[in-house]
């Protein structure tokens, strides 16, 4: 059995503070891959944990690098993403049948600059790639900062497709896509 885990612990909202921890698991009928999601809520913390069906996520990024990332990039990054970097500074592997390469915190600004993302797809901040022709990024022009998929060749903001609400949703959706 291959396991994908997404664990989300959130708090800060009054209705969440009293919510009990819960775990849900399901198995894909087509592949048999198991997906386990655990949610436990407690006061004042957000913790997200992820693993790949195959591959490896890297060791944590330096906290100082992550804490200064939003100012270097000129955009407030989603909290789940900065927490992800504090746990896994990049990495690559499969989520279901989808291959994903997460960029290191130190590489984000340079990567987006070299690919001239602001010129061709203003408002998109790339943070990952499929290792081929597509990139994954945040739509910074939307207050919710959803995750979009966009082609490298012919990169244009109009070709960005919203595919997930946040990282946990991205992992879940990639697992489902076969």
What does this structure look like?
The chain has a seven-stranded antiparallel beta sheet. It is 25% helix and 33% strand. With 178 residues, the chain is an alpha+beta fold. The longest helix has 11 residues, at 63-73.
Quote the beta fraction: 25-35%
Distance N to C terminus: 16 Å
In order across it, which strands form the biggest sheet?
5-6-7-8-9-10-11
Largest sheet: 7 strands, antiparallel
Structural shape: globular
List unreliable stretches of 5+ residues: 1-48
What's the mean pLDDT score?
78
Determine the number of helices (DSSP H or I, runs of at least 4 residues): 6
Helix content: 25-40%
Radius of gyration: 16 Å
Order of helices and strands: EHEEEEHHEEHHEEEEH
User: Structural class of the helix and strand makeup?
Assistant: alpha+beta
The count of DSSP E runs of length 2 or more, i.e. the number of strands, is 11
Summarize the structure.
This protein has six helices and eleven strands. It is of the alpha+beta class and 178 residues long.
Question: What is the element layout, followed by pairings?
Answer:
Blueprint: E1 3-9, H1 14-17, E2 22-27, E3 34-39, E4 47-50, E5 54-57, H2 63-73, H3 79-87, E6 91-95, E7 98-102, H4 108-114, H5 117-120, E8 124-129, E9 134-139, E10 147-151, E11 161-164, H6 167-176
Parallel strand pairs: 1-3
Antiparallel strand pairs: 1-4, 2-3, 5-6, 6-7, 7-8, 8-9, 9-10, 10-11
């Amino acid at each position: 059995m291959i396991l994908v885990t997404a664990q989300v612990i959130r708090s800060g909202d009054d209705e969440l503070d009293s919510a009990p921890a819960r775990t849900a698991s399901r198995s894909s009928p087509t592949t048999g891959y198991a997906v386990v999601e655990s949610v436990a809520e407690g006061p004042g913390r957000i913790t997200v944990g992820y693993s790949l069906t195959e591959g490896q996520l890297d060791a944590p990024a330096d906290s100082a690098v992550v804490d200064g990332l939003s100012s270097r990039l000129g955009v407030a990054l989603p909290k789940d993403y900065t927490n992800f970097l504090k746990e896994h500074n990049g990495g690559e592997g499969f989520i279901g049948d989808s291959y994903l390469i997460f960029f290191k915190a130190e590489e984000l600004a340079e990567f987006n600059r070299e690919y001239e993302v602001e010129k061709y797809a203003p408002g998109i901040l790339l943070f990952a790639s499929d290792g081929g022709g597509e990139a994954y990024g945040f739509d910074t022009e939307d207050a919710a900062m959803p995750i979009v998929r966009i082609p490298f060749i012919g990169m244009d903001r109009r070709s960005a497709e919203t595919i997930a609400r946040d990282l946990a949703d991205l992992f879940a959706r990639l697992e489902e896509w076969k």
